[in-house]
Amino acid sequence: MKNLSSDILTEKEEQPAMESATPISGSEAVIRSLIEEGVETIFGYPGGAIMPVYDALYHFQEKIHHILVRHEQGAAHAAQGYARITGKPGVCLVTSGPGATNLVTGITDAMMDSTPMVCITGQVFANLLGTDAFQEADVIGITAPITKWSYQITDADEIPEILSKAFYIACTGRPGPVLIDITKNAQTALMTREFAYAKCTKIVSYRPRMQPKADQVEAAARLINEARKPYLFVGHGVLISKAEEELKAFVDKTGIPAACTLLGLSAIPADHPLYVGMLGMHGNYSTNRLINEADLIIGLGMRFDDRVTGKVTDFAPHAKVIHIDIDPSEINKIIPADAPVVGDAKEALKALLPLVEQRRHDSWLAEFKELDKQEYEKVIKDDLYPEEGQIKMGEVIRRLSEKTSGKAAIVADVGQHQMEAARYYRFSQTDGYITSGGSGTMGFALPAAFGAKVGSPEREVVAIIGDGCFQMTLQELGTIWQSELPVKIIVLNNNYLGMVRQWQQLFFDRRYSFVELKNPDFITIAKGFGIDGMRICEREDLDSALDTLLESDKAFLLEILVEKELNVFPMVPAGASVSAIRLE
Amino acid sequence: MEKLYTICIFTENTLGLLNRISGIFTRRRINIESLSVSETERKGVSRFTIVIKSDERERVEKIVRQIRKIIEVLAVFGYEDHDLTYNELAFFKVDAEKSAGVKELLEGYKRAKVLFEDQRILIIEKAGTEEEIYAFFSRLKPFGILEFVRSGRIALPNNEKGLAQYLPEVDWEYYM
C-alpha cells in the first residue's frame, strides 16, 4: 500500500523556491530541503547507510553547519537543547541500525517534553528491507510510539515533499519529534524530476487548533471572574508559544497568583510580585499546599503530570478547573476540566484578556507568603546560606544566580541538582531553564547545553550536572572541544546517585542499594578533552571559582564537592496528596 | 458494567498506520475484541472498525482523542451499540458424514447458508451479531465443528453523515 493520497491531502504553496536544471541525487535533495527550511545546524554522526547524504553535505558546508557528536544520543539531546532555546526544530542526521536506535532515548525525551525535532536516519537499500541486512533495524516500528510522525522514504522523488511535511508537523500544534528514514537507494538515485521545494502549509488530516473557540474562552472567563481563590499553573506551552508578554498582562490584570511547572520555569520572572514559585514533587511548600485551598485552578499549557498533581483523587477538591492546552487529548486526561479551552496558549491569553475583570487577590496571595516563611525557615535559609559543613547545592545555585543576574540559560540534568537548580535559580529571562522533565533522562544536560549554546551563542549557558549524570554522556566533552563551544559546566559531585539515595533513606530504611559511585578524576578527564577545569570543596573558594568559570571565554568544567547526604525538601511523597508535602 | 464500544477511524491509506493505532490500545492494556480495515467510499481513505470492551465511557473517550492525534487520522468516532447498525460474518466447517440434519437447521435461519459442499465437508456461512453467531454456534455444535472463523465487526452509524459531511472542506473523490 503506497501512500496514494498524499497529493490530495497535502496542500502546498505552488512556489518552487529553488530549481535546478539537471537532476540531483536524493542526498542532495535532502541537503537542499534542509537549506530551504532554514536549517543552519545539524547534529549528527556519519555511518554506512547515511554516507551519501554526508557526501552531499560535504559540498554544502558553507551553508549548513554540522556538529559531529560522540554518540547519537548526544545528537538528539543537543538538538533538543537547540530547539528549546531557539524555538526552531533541532535536526539530527545519523546512520541506520545502531545509529538510529541510539537516538531513541532523545526522541522519547523530545516527545515527552514537546520539543520540535527532525531526525533523519539512513536505512539499508529498499530491496534489502526486512532481510536482517547489515545495520538494518525497523526504525519506523521502534520509534512509532515515540514520534509525532515518521515516514520511510524509498524513492528520491519523495524527499522534498516528505521533508517539508516533517518540518511542518514537528513545529506546529504541540511540537514533537519526527523521524524520516531514508533508504540508501533513495539517497543515491537521481530524482526523476526537477528539485522544487514548497513549504508545507496544511495537512488535511492534521489541523491543530490555534485559535480557541469563543464559547470556551467565555466560559473560562466567567469562572475567572467568579473565583475568590484562583490559582494559575504556568506550563511549557507558554514558552513554546512565546506568550510571556500576554501572560504578564493576564496576571497583572487578574491578580491571580501564578506558579510554574518544572518546564514552565522562566515564563514569568522570579521577582514578579504574583509569582509564587514552582509546582511539583520538589516544588515550593505554598504552591503545593494551597492547591487544595484554591477554588479555581487554571492549567495553562501544562498537562497535570503526576509529579504536579500528587494523588489525583485528592487534588484540588474545592476547585473548578480551567484547562488551556493546544492538545485536545490532554483535556480530561488526568484532571477533569470544568472549562476546557483548546488552543495555543498565546491565542487563548489574548482572547481571555479583554473578558477578565481587573482584580486583586491580596489576602489569598498573603496565604502563599505566609507559608513561604515556613519554608524559608525550615529549608531555604539553610540551603542558601549555610554557615558550616560541606558546600550545599543550593548555595552554589544562589551564587550562580546572583552572578549571572538570573539571565543565564541553565541546562540541568536529572536528580537532586536538577531540583535545586530549579528551586534556587532566580530566572529573569525567558527560556532560562532547559531540562529533561517528562522523561527524566540522565545524561541530558551536557549535550543539551552545547546544543543550546549553538542556538544562542550570545547567552551564557551553564550546565548543572550531577556526578552520576555526567558519566552517562561525558564523551560529549569531545564535541564541545572540537566544535569550540564555550559551555560552562558545573558538576555537583556528592559521590552518590543522590535522588535515589534520598528515596532509599526516606522510604527504604537507609538501605543504600548501589547508589555510591567511585568516580574518576573529572578534571583530568576534562583536560584530556582539552577543557580546563577546577575542583573545589571549600566554601571560601566558591565565589572565585564561579568567577573563573563565568569569565572563561572557553568551555570550562567546575567540579564542586557538595554535601554527600543532602536531601531535597520540601517533598510530596510519591502517591501522596499535594497537601501532604513535607518540609523535613 | 462492561460494554462494547465500536471505534470507527478514518485514515489516509498509509503504511504502518495499524501499528501506530494498535500501539495506543497496547499502551493502555486494552484488548482489541475485533478489528476490520477496508477502503471507504472515498479515494485514498481507509476505515478501521475496532471493537473494545470497557466499563468506563470516559476511558474510551480518552482513547478516541489519542487516536485522533495520529497525523494520518482524518476523523475518529466512538459508538455504543445502539448508535450503530453492525454485523459480523462467520464460517463453520462441518464433517459431511455427520451433517445429517444441518440443512434443516439452516432453514430456521434467515442469514445462514451453505457456501461449499463436497463428499467430505460443508462450509456454512452465518451473518449476524456476535450473539446471533454464537447462538448458531451452540446449535451447530452437536454436529461437530471442524473449524470456525469469525470476521471483525463492520458497522455504520445510524445518522445521515459520511466522511464528506464530517470534513466538507476537502474535495473528496469517490473510491471508484
Write the layout of secondary structure elements.
The complex is a heterodimer of chains A (584) and B (176).
Chain A: H1 6-9, E1 10-12, H2 26-36, E2 41-44, H3 51-58, E3 65-68, H4 72-86, E4 90-94, H5 98-101, H6 104-112, E5 117-123, H7 139-143, E6 149-153, H8 159-171, E7 177-183, H9 184-188, E8 200-203, H10 214-226, E9 230-234, H11 236-240, H12 244-254, E10 258-260, E11 275-278, H13 285-289, E12 296-300, H14 306-309, E13 320-325, E14 339-342, H15 345-352, H16 362-384, H17 393-403, E15 409-412, H18 416-424, E16 433-435, H19 445-455, E17 461-466, H20 467-473, H21 477-482, E18 488-493, H22 498-507, H23 522-528, E19 532-536, H24 542-551, E20 556-561
Parallel strand pairs in A: 2-3, 2-4, 4-5, 5-7, 6-7, 9-10, 9-12, 10-11, 12-13, 13-14, 15-16, 15-17, 17-18, 18-20, 19-20
Antiparallel strand pairs in A: 1-8
Chain B: E1 3-12, H1 17-27, E2 32-39, E3 45-54, H2 57-68, E4 73-80, E5 84-95, H3 102-107, E6 112-117, E7 121-128, H4 130-140, E8 145-150, E9 154-157, H5 163-166
Antiparallel strand pairs in B: 1-3, 1-4, 2-3, 5-7, 5-8, 5-9, 6-7
Task: For this entry, give a set of tags.
heterodimer; A: 584 residues; alpha/beta; Rossmann fold; 3 domains; 6-stranded parallel β-sheet; 16% strand; B: 176 residues; alpha+beta; Alpha-Beta Plaits; 2 domains; 5-stranded antiparallel β-sheet; 4-stranded antiparallel β-sheet; 9 strands
Folded structure, characterized:
The complex is a heterodimer of chains A (584) and B (176). Mean pLDDT of chain A is 96; it is low at 1-9. In chain A, the strands form 4 sheets. Chain A has a 6-stranded parallel β-sheet with strand order 3-2-4-5-7-6, sandwiched between helices. Chain A is built from 24 helices and 20 strands. With 584 residues, chain A is of the alpha/beta class. Chain B is α+β, with helices and mostly antiparallel strands. Chain B has 2 domains: 3-84 and 154-166, Alpha-Beta Plaits; 87-150, 2-Layer Sandwich (Alpha-Beta Plaits). In chain B, strands 5, 6, 7, 8 and 9 form a 5-stranded antiparallel β-sheet that branches. The radius of gyration of chain B is 19 Å and the shape is elongated. The A-B interface holds A 1-6, 8-9, 140-141, 144-145, 148-150, 152, 169, 203-206, 327-329, 331-333 and B 11-16, 19-20, 23, 27, 43-45, 58, 61-62, 65-66, 68-69, 71-74, 167, 169-171, 173.
